[in-house]
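input
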Amino acid sequence: MPEGDTVWRACKRLDQALGGQELLRTDFRVPALATTDLSGRTVLEVVPRGKHLLMRISGGLTLHSHFRMDGSWHLYRPGERWRGGPDHQVRAVLETASWIAVGYRLPVLELVETDAEESVVGHLGPDLLSPSFDRAQAIANIEAQPERTISEALLDQRNLAGIGNFYRVEVCFLLGLHPWRPVSSVDVPAAVDLSRRLMKANLRNGTQVSTGIDKPGQRTWVFERAGKPCRRCRSTIQFDTIGSPPRERVTHWCPTCQPATEDVGADTR
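output
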């Protein structure tokens, strides 16, 4: 699932291409918006909120979208061949004089009043990539449930918005935290600060890197490296699922660098 930095970069590209431009044609291929026509309106700005995209349009409207697992927005020049997938996966087409934005496989696509944006993103905690990120609130949100695992707490968008599986797994490794460690035994400020630092660094990289080495096969410490040797100690990277359906997530960890302690409980994986 795309994480906050990926969404931030997508919003920046869309904003640079569409911001201040008049929509010449719109085509929505979801039942709720099938008869909607935004042609003649102007795209004011495209902004991220956690993993959500908010495209603000003149007349007090916001087009809200979310990538979830495999959604995406692609930009094409008029006449350029679309390459984001087959036609039946297109959910939205927004055309200006210079660009065509095509939304593929968007599981969330809805039009709301700009004044009512909180109805779709108001549940989110502080956005890690926002210049006005409320660090104290994010820490307080996580610490409010001390018995919860740090993995689940970091992934909960109501605590802080933007973190996905990549950052959660890598932050736990870098801080030496077993994935099932309870929040009560974790330096929460350190986890929040490292998460934000990694995400902000990757805004510049354009890729998700936690090792400092932006080369294929060398970008992560443990994420998606199950069965491979730990880069630090050569122990075999483990994996399992954490959380309850439908919010289960695959987690990876090094049993030596992230040892289970008595705080983790009987199930140490």
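quick obs: Residues 263-269 have pLDDT under 50 and may be disordered.
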